[in-house]
Structures are given as C-alpha cells and as structure tokens.
Amino acid sequence: MGAVVGTLTLQTRQRQPSRDNIDDELEMTMVSHRPEGLEQLEAQTNFTKQELQVLYRGFKNECPSGVVNEETFKHIYAQFFPHGDASTYAHYLFNAFDTRNNGSIKFEDFVMGLSTLLRGTVREKLEWTFHLYDINKDGLINKEEMTEIVRAIYDMMGKYTYPALKGDVPKQHVDAFFEKMDKNKDGVVTLEEFVLACQEDENMMRSIQLFENVM
Amino acid sequence: MAAGVATWLPFARAAAVGWLPLAKKTMPKPPVDKKSRNDEILFVNVSGLRFQTWKNTLDRYPDTLLGSSEKEFFYNEDTQEYFFDRDPEMFRHILNFYRTGKLHYPKQECIQAFDEELAFYGIVPDIIGDCCMEEYRDRKKENQERLAEDTEAENATDTPLPPDSTSRERLWRAFENPHTSTMALVFYYVTGFFIAVSVIANVVETVPCRPPKGSKKDLPCGEKYTLAFFCMDTACVLIFTFEYLMRLFAAPSRCKFMRSVMSVIDVVAIMPYYIGLVMPENEDVSGAFVTLRVFRVFRIFKFSRHSQGLRILGYTLKSCASELGFLLFSLTMAIIIFATVMFYAEKGTKGTNFTSIPASFWYTIVTMTTLGYGDMVPNTIAGKIFGSICSLSGVLVIALPVPVIVSNFSRIYHQNQRADKMRAQQKVRLARIRLAKKGTTNAFLQYKEEGGFQGRGSDNAVCLKNRSSFEHQHHHLLHCLEKTTNHEFTDELTFSEMCMTESVGYRTSRSTSISSQQGVSTSCCPRRAKRRAIRLANSTVSVSRGSVQELDTLQVHKTSSGPQSRSSLNARTEDLKLNCEDRDFTAAIISIPTPPANTPDESLPPSPAIPGILRNSRPTSFTHETVKISSL
C-alpha cells in the first residue's frame, strides 16, 4: 500500500546525500601537485640526480597526487612496526617533516627531511632531532614533551617485550634523559644544551655515523 | 608486507635518527648492501611480446616469481632477457599488479586460465582489488559448481561398487540410485505405483457412490466399500512400512537418516494407519482420529523422491523463506489496517457481518485479492468508501508491486549475499593481515635468534643470504628500536610464560647460593619439569657460586615451516653454533649449576637480566627436548 511504497522511497532518498559526499571526495583527490624542477632540488639537497629520480619514482607511485596526508603517513609507518601502535610517534614524525605546517607532506618536504637526516652535518641532524622532540615548536623541550615522545616510542614496542614493561619505564627514561641533557637544571632543554650534551655522548656520535648509507 | 611500503623504508630508517639521543646503548650496525644501488631496466619477453620495467618494480613483491630469484631460471643469456613461454595478454595484468599494487581480473578471460597464470607467477588471488573481486568470485563459484556437478554426475551413476561392499551398502546404493540394478528399478516403480494408488484411493473414497438398495442417502464410496478400501490401505501401508524399514537398515548413518525430510514424510504418511489400528472404535476419539487421516495426503510428497522438480521447488522455497516472510508481513500490516477501518466504519449498522476486527480480516483479504465472494459487504457509506479504497489498494498492493517486490527481493537478497561475502572477505583479510604481522614478528625474532647481528663468519652467511635486503634493513630498524628502549621483542608465548614465572616470585642474586625452590616447579608447562629432569640428568656439575657452565649439545631440528615460537635470543650466548646446511642446528645450552642435594623438581630461577633464553616450545616430532637456558 501507500505506506510500503512510501517507506521504500524514503530509503532511496536517504542514500542520495552520501553519494554527493563521495563525489566531493573524488574531486578533492584529483588535485595533484608537481614538485620543483630536478635541478633546483639537486641544488637544495645533498642528493644526486639519480637518487632524486629513484626517490621521486617511489614517492609518486605511492602517492599519485603528490602529497601525503597524515592518515596515509600513519598507515605506512604502522606497517613497519606491526608489534605495537605506531600512530602517536608517526604523528610527531609527520609534524617534524611537515615544515610548512599545512597538514601534508609534499615531495620537497620529504626530500629535504631525508637530505638532512642522511647527508646532513652532525649539527643539522641534531637540530632536526631537537625539532622532532619540540612538539609545540617553542624552542624548548620540557619534560612533558619528552614524556610524550618517549611514550610514543614505547608504544611502538607493543605489549610483548622482554623484559616486560613494568612500572613507568618511559618516565624513568625521561628522567635519565633530562639528567644527561639539562645542564643548568632549569627543567627545560634548549637547543644549545641539547647539541652540547649529544656531542659529549660517544655512543650517540658513533651511532650517527652508522646511518649514512641508508640510501 | 605491502609493496609500496618498501619505498618508504629508507625514510623510516632515516627517521630513526630521532631515537638516537634517547638510546642508552649504541645502535647496531646497519646491513651492508653489496649489490649496486642503481636501478636498472629489465627486459621480460613473454612469448615474443617484450616488456620492460624497472627492477625495483618487480622487487616490490619478493614472494612472487618475478620478485624473487626464481626468475633467474628463466634468464636467457644470449638475449639478455627473461623469457616466459606464457600468455602475453595475461602478462599485462600481472605486470600492472607490480606497477600499481592492484590486481585486476579481465572479464573476457577464462577464470581457470587466469588462475593458472596467477599460480605460475606465484600471486595469491586474494589480493584482487575490490573493483574486480566480485566478478572474480562469481565466476569462480560458477566454475566450481559446474565442476562439482560434472564430478557428481560422473560418480553418481555408473561407477561400480567396490567388490567387498557389504550387502547393506549395496542396498543403500540401490535405494539412492535406482538405475544401478534392475531389482532397484523394479522396486522404484512399484513404490511409485503404490503411492499413486494410495493417493487415488484417498481421493476416491470421499466421492459419493450410489447408495445401496433400500437407502436414500448418498454415501461416500469409502463407507460403501469399507472393506475394499481398508484392504487397499493396508497393502499400501505395508509396502511403505517395509520400504521405510529397509531404508533405515541400509542407511549409513541412521540418526542422520531419521532426521532427514524424506524419512519424516514417510513416517507421517504411515502413522495415521497404525494409530487407527490402535485406537478403539470410540465415537469421541474417532472424531479426532478422522482428522489424522488428513495426514495421509502427505503421501503425495513421497513423490519428491521420484521427481527432481519437486525437490528443486522445495529447495527454492526454503531459500526464499525470508523474502516470503517479508511479503507476508507487509500484507498483514495492510490487512490489519483496513480491517480495523472497516470494522469501525460498519460498527453502527444493525445485523452487520463485521462483528469484530478479526471477522473483518476475511473481508479485507477477499477484497484486496480482488476475489470478492460477496458474503460480507459494507452497508454504510463510509464503509463503502473505505471498501472501495481497500479494493483499489488491493490491486496496487498485490498486483503491481509483486514484480517490483520480486525484483527488490532479488536485489536485497543479492545485496545481503554481497554484504555477507564482504564480511567474510573482511574476516579473511583481517586474518591475513594478522598472519602477515605475525609473520613479520616471527621473522624478526627468528632473525635475531640466528644470531644475525653479530658477524660470525661464513656459516652464518649461507642462511642469512636467504633474506632480501629489504628484510635485512627492516630487521635492523627493529633492532635499533630495541636498543633505544632497552627492551626486546618477544612473542606472546614467551611473554605469558615469563609473566607466570615472575608472578610466582623468582628472585636470584649472585651472592646467595642457589637454594631449591620447591613448589614452584609446576608452572604452566608440564614440559618444564621434564626439561629440568633431563638437564639434571645431563649435567654433572658441582656446586659453585659463580657460573659454572656445562655445555650440552642437543640436536634440534628446525623445519622450514616457520619459526612459530622462537623467543628472543640474545646474541651474547657465544656458544651458539649454527649449522645451516641441513637446516637443523645444534644448540649449545648453558645450564645452571645446581647443588646435587636438590630435589629433582628444583626450579631454575630466571633472573630479570637473563641474557639468553632459548626455547623451542613447539611440540613437533622432531625435537627431542625443549630446553630452557639460563645463566647467572
């Protein structure tokens, strides 16, 4: 009867708006981005042309639109750490790469970040790390920021670790870190304190050299 | 791991610089990649059609033919290309899979040919993209059903019985496939005939026959020729009972047989007769008994054994039950509404037929289905108006939407099926993701256990070469994380065992001698007690406070099926030797010194800083023992 027919039409009408949303989304993903020229990037970074080519081919294959947004980034990063939850750390990492703070990473950001990390000087690497830890970008690392970062790292380990994570291991870790880094014991670590303390740490210096040949 | 992820690995490793200030220990050395890093273009010749692609593209999926070293078997030195003698049209899709990460199913190809190509190239069909997955699955199911029908048809009819089958099996086969022997065929036709006779007798005995002499009333034939009908009925029931008992005897699974629909029909068909025999000739009871004779009509359903069409109809109705139920429900709604309206409209009339709402149901049904018997008609004007609305909407409700509802139902039905398929597929996908995750975890743990981190010499190189450089680098990354947090990855089993032992309260310290801790031995694993007993038997050590070590070598076979339960092995146990050639390794175990005075079920306290625990807790027939190592 009329009621039955009426309910049937109601259902079809409700489905229309969702289809519009899908159309909108489709339009948005069509926006693509082209990076600057190869020569410019070669000048700005420490990579050779061939390396940039390989990097770009991989990047473009993964993100045909030319940009990576945070969700995709988290998803990709989580694949490397299947044991635990890598989303928090991926979020901080994303912010560290997203130097323009516009919520997406373009190829230039990607390649600049990589250039710093792989081919930069020790000071540049330390500066990058400092910016990673400095969540609110105020030039200082305080205990809360450090605790967040350390917790995010421990989250990546997952539940099944040996020895088991007992007590507040991240907090202890943070305390040890501040012990080492905070020279004037004012509760915050500035860039200079950070760089100085790291340069004094032999283990760290040795490890930094190890990461040269990742490419 | 997903293909494109390999592209991001250098990035993730570079980002590991961010862990450096936090790490308490030095990072491990990264793996050295001896191969040239320059990307090269490969030529792939498939039956004359030449394809070119970057080597990196193919390397994205290392567990397929083209991504692994298996393709070297197809390398042609003279022409410097990889030659495959396969379908070039299909290869296009395979190569697109490497390029885009999505596998598409070409609709014009035969499903079996496609499957064969996928199997050849080592690609699992589950990764077909969503766009083509439904088509693929439908075609595959069609194909499988066709194959199944063919094999069933082959098997069913003419395959001869194995010579040593019992008479019971032969009997069952004769019942199920009447065409196999003449006796079975005869029996089949005889039962069919008697079913027909019985049904016709039931029908005819209610027809009025000419009354016997001296009586005016027309009698139904059943009462005139009572004896004849009774004899016929008895004969039929005897045959049916005999058939039922023979089937019951011959059935391979009696319970299953008794629960099947056909046997229920058989029982219902013959029950009234026996109940009638038992029942006394009592007037009150025989009234109830007469209604039982209605069930004799069920004998007609026995024909479904003889007719394929009836069976199919029954099956179709059963499968459409939910749609029919919905149709019935909507009809009921309409009936109730109109019956209520008519009742209240006709309430005022004197002597009306619409005595109650349920009484109006009859009017509504008759009107809506446009039958119009005329036994109930409205008298008031309002009643007539609503009555005409009822009949008009009856046309709309019944006649018009029936095709629409039928097609709607078929659409809803297919949609539900698709939703269920999607859900099942989702489950399968999740399970696969979990498995892949577990695989990566286990791969990493196994890697560590094989002492991959220390450069140990040539015998390690053999087994470590099996891993791709991607895996090397990924494991290095995970190892860096371990060093940063100063904790190690383990698997669930080890973790739960450790929790259990720790909760029982182990403590050990170097200064005190090991005291026996009785009563803690029986933890989760009864194997542990056996292990300790074995080790005690093997160890011949005297007591000392330090770490006297007894080397015990055990043969442990490691099957290639996977490191399901490897736990973490710290590379510091120097005495671990790996003999990878024949895929089994000799493990050296350092056992704890125990005072000989201790009772056999002394438990060995694992200190929190235990350097190495090797446990193979997978109970296979190969492992001789499962061992727990700990050293103070």
TrEMBL record, chain A:
Record-linked InterPro entries: EF-hand-dom_pair, EF_Hand_1_Ca_BS, EF_hand_dom, Recoverin
> Mind telling me which GO cellular component terms the entry cites?
voltage-gated potassium channel complex
Q: Where in the cell is it found?
A: Cell membrane
Q: Which GO terms describe its biological process?
A: regulation of potassium ion transmembrane transport
Q: Which GO terms describe its molecular function?
A: calcium ion binding; potassium channel activity; potassium channel regulator activity; transmembrane transporter binding
Q: Which stretches make up the EF-hand domain?
A: 85-120, 121-156, 169-204
| Chief location category | membrane
> What keyword terms does UniProt attach to this protein?
Calcium, Cell membrane, Ion channel, Ion transport, Membrane, Metal-binding, Potassium, Potassium channel, Potassium transport, Repeat, Transport, Voltage-gated channel
Please, which domain of life does this record's source organism belong to? Eukaryota
Q: Which Pfam families match?
A: EF-hand_7, EF-hand_8
The family line of this record is: Belongs to the recoverin family.
Provide the protein name. Answer: Kv channel-interacting protein 1 isoform X2
Biological source species? Carassius auratus (Goldfish)
> What lineage is on file?
Eukaryota, Metazoa, Chordata, Craniata, Vertebrata
- Gene that produces this protein: kcnip1b
TrEMBL record, chain B:
Q: State the similarity comment.
A: Belongs to the potassium channel family. D (Shal) (TC 1.A.1.2) subfamily. Kv4.1/KCND1 sub-subfamily.
Q: How does it assemble?
A: Component of heteromultimeric potassium channels. Identified in potassium channel complexes containing KCND1, KCND2, KCND3, KCNIP1, KCNIP2, KCNIP3, KCNIP4, DPP6 and DPP10.
Give the record's membrane topology: Multi-pass membrane protein
Q: Name one Pfam family in it.
A: DUF3399
| Endpoints of the signal sequence | 1-16
* Subcellular locations according to the entry: Membrane
Offer one example of a GO biological process linked to this entry.
protein homooligomerization
Q: Which GO terms describe its molecular function?
A: A-type (transient outward) potassium channel activity
- Please give the Gene3D superfamilies that the UniProt record associates with this protein: 1.10.287.70, Potassium Channel Kv1.1, Chain A (3.30.710.10), Voltage-gated potassium channels. Chain C (1.20.120.350)
Q: Please state what the protein is called.
A: A-type voltage-gated potassium channel KCND1
Stored PANTHER family? POTASSIUM VOLTAGE-GATED CHANNEL SUBFAMILY D MEMBER 1, VOLTAGE-GATED POTASSIUM CHANNEL
Q: Does the UniProt entry include the keyword NADP?
A: no
Q: List membrane-spanning regions.
A: 183-204, 224-245, 257-279, 324-345, 357-373, 385-406
Chief place where the protein resides: membrane
User: Which is one Gene Ontology cellular component term of this protein?
Assistant: neuronal cell body
Which InterPro entries does the record cross-reference, listed alphabetically?
A: BTB/POZ_dom, Ion_trans_dom, K_chnl_volt-dep_Kv, K_chnl_volt-dep_Kv4, K_chnl_volt-dep_Kv4.1, K_chnl_volt-dep_Kv4_C, Shal-type_N, SKP1/BTB/POZ_sf
Q: Which domain of life is it from?
A: Eukaryota
Tell me the segments the record calls region Disordered: 143-167
Native organism is Carassius auratus (Goldfish)
Give all residue intervals belonging to the BTB domain. 40-139
Which key words tag this protein in UniProt?
Ion channel, Ion transport, Membrane, Potassium, Potassium channel, Potassium transport, Signal, Transmembrane, Transmembrane helix, Transport, Voltage-gated channel
Keyword Transmembrane applies: yes
